[in-house]
Amino acid sequence: MNTLRPRDAAIGFDNLTLGYDRHPAVHHVSGRIAPGSLVAIVGPNGAGKSTLLKGIMGTLKPLTGRIVLDNLDQREIAYLPQLAEIDRSFPLSVYDFVAMGLWRRCGLFRGFGRGDHTRISEALAAVGLEGFERRAIGTLSGGQMQRTLFARLLLQDASVILLDEPFNAIDTKTTADLLDLVAHWHAEKRTVVAVLHDLDTVRHAFPETILLARETVAWGPTRDVVTPENLAAARRMVEAFDRTAPLCARDAA
Ligand SMILES: Nc1ncnc2c1ncn2[C@@H]1O[C@H](COP(=O)(O)OP(=O)(O)OP(=O)(O)O)[C@@H](O)[C@H]1O
């Protein structure tokens, strides 16, 4: 069902500062996520990981610096938000929720053809949710909802996929199944960037890591980045950060 034509979609950060109400949340990030990378973003709570994903998505505009997208339109990026951010009270079936992954290609008001229904069924099968089509999303367990979100991502068929804590509070079996999908996307040369807290998962499944602590502590091969020294430095840096500061000392100089 993969209709992706691999392209050289890359994401660059040029001295990027992102924040809220003009207060920086993550600052001076520079680097490039190469096409086809499989990258983990790690760091303590409040390090700016989700903020960086929101910057890539364009929902948060840079305070200073730039995000440079090569061969990539922001609308083509697929994004899996944290489970807690999804309003599940909306009366939507699993089938209709997953079908939303096709909207960008089909348009809102065009009906689905037989090929589309097949693709939706294949996506549900790929995440192990056959038989759940008519269930309201509000009745799903956390793991079932996460599988539903992955099925929607499958249909989006995006060259860049951003995942915000995709395995939080998800059991081992579901995590393993969803990690298989991530590995599959990587094999298809899609770019996958995931915010993660479980460092074992990062070490086993993500070749590249960005360690954030309001700025970049380290960025490179996971074995070089996820070290006790770097993790301790990240903790110290987040604790020392003044969240009320309008500017950092580097900007003021
Ligand atoms: N909408 C917002 N308005 C104001 N401040 C915000 C907003 N969203 C995040 N922040 C602040 O920005 C900082 C970075 O938050 P962010 O959610 O990016 O961190 P994170 O690394 O993803 O943390 P966690 O691991 O806890 O999810 C935090 O101090 C947070 O309180």
TrEMBL record:
SMART domains: AAA
Pfam families referenced in this protein's UniProt entry, alphabetically: ABC_tran (PF00005)
Domain ABC transporter: 11-239
SUPFAM superfamilies, per database record: P-loop containing nucleoside triphosphate hydrolases (SSF52540)
Superkingdom to which the source organism belongs: Bacteria
Single GO term (MF): ATP hydrolysis activity
GO BP terms: zinc ion transport
Record InterPro entries: AAA+_ATPase (IPR003593), ABC_transporter-like_ATP-bd (IPR003439), AztA-like (IPR047748), Metal_Ion_Import_ABC (IPR050153), P-loop_NTPase (IPR027417)
Keyword vocabulary terms for this entry: ATP-binding, Ion transport, Nucleotide-binding, Transport, Zinc, Zinc transport
Coiled-coil annotated residue ranges, if any: none
PANTHER family (alphabetical): IRON TRANSPORT SYSTEM ATP-BINDING PROTEIN HI_0361-RELATED (PTHR42734:SF5), METAL TRANSPORT SYSTEM ATP-BINDING PROTEIN TM_0124-RELATED (PTHR42734)
Family indicated by similarity: Belongs to the ABC transporter superfamily.
Protein name: Zinc ABC transporter ATP-binding protein AztA
The species this protein was found in: Methyloraptor flagellatus
